[in-house]
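Comment thread on ticket #2218

A.B. wrote:
> Attaching the input chain for the structure job we discussed in standup.
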Amino acid sequence: MIDPRTAKLAKLLVVYSARVKPGDWVVIRGTVAGAPLVREVVRETLAAGGHPSVLWDDEQVSEIMLRSADDEQIEYVSPLERLPYAQADALIRIGAPENTRALSGVDPARQRLQQVARRPLMAEYLRRGDAGELNWVVTQYPCPALAQESDMGLSDYADFVFGATLVDRDDPVAEWGRVHAMQERLTQWLRGKKRVVVRGPNADLRLSIEGRQFINSDGRHNMPSGEIFTGPVEDSVEGWIRFTYPAIHAGREVEGIRLVFEQGVVVEATAEKNEAYLQTLLDSDEGARRVGEFAIGTNDGITRFTKSILFDEKIGGTIHMAVGAGYPSTGSVNESAIHWDMICDMRDGSEILVDDELFYRNGKFQV
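C.D. wrote:
> Ran it. Output below, let me know if you need it in another format.
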């Protein structure tokens, strides 16, 4: 018997996040481990009058491709791969891997080649999303692999996921409405501001947000959500930051990352673990060494690090920055094949000043 919270999450994704309308083509991407949620999303899409198509992902197939294909085959982007990004009305992606480390033994240069070839897909994805042509949302379904990554049993992890997405509440849509209202107050305060300073034991950073917009991330694109974010002026980031949580990309953990910026560019990058992989991704293209996103997490219901960026970047009391592609909706013009989020805890001796006014201290907003 299906967990009733799974059905509530499916309805939230279809009705609230993807806003499916009669006649919409809805592409649902998932894995076998996430099949219970995929099936419920199909059911809710039909109830909303949409036309669901399911694409199944498999990390073993991905590993075979990266290990066995030649360069031309890795760079090939099939028409089927392009079609959802170009024509779908809604794209719902459900993460539920069988092995979170399936690609950890693959040559990172091969992964970079694949990512660079798909850069136009990312650009189209972001463009259509910002233009209102594509409603997209990413979520995760509680599965054994993700529970193990989080150091939790499966039932405890399910409680965590359904709690973070607010589907354990009577009216999840109303709950996300309250999140929206709280964050809207903050984004309105930030409108028209110009300079941000981040300082504390893990950062001494300055950046410009002049002409940029902070976005209220309220569960429309990420489920769960709980953050406000912008794209800083590309050549404005100066100083250094040390990320206090591991940054995970394609199954590799990079720990103890410290980045130094000059005129918006990463000029020095070190890590305590997997530094070579960090350097490889930063060399993906010119935009990979610039910041595409600066964000503040607001979700106090996410109380622990789970090694899943979907949850971890929203932890209340943290900031995160992404090197690589920025979101055009913020005003960012940074383009890259990557978008890699890295998280820094701000709850002890840290603060953010905006136009010389205290905005945030020790993980709490001051305005």
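A.B. wrote:
> Thanks. Noting for the ticket: The two ends are 47 Å apart (CA to CA).
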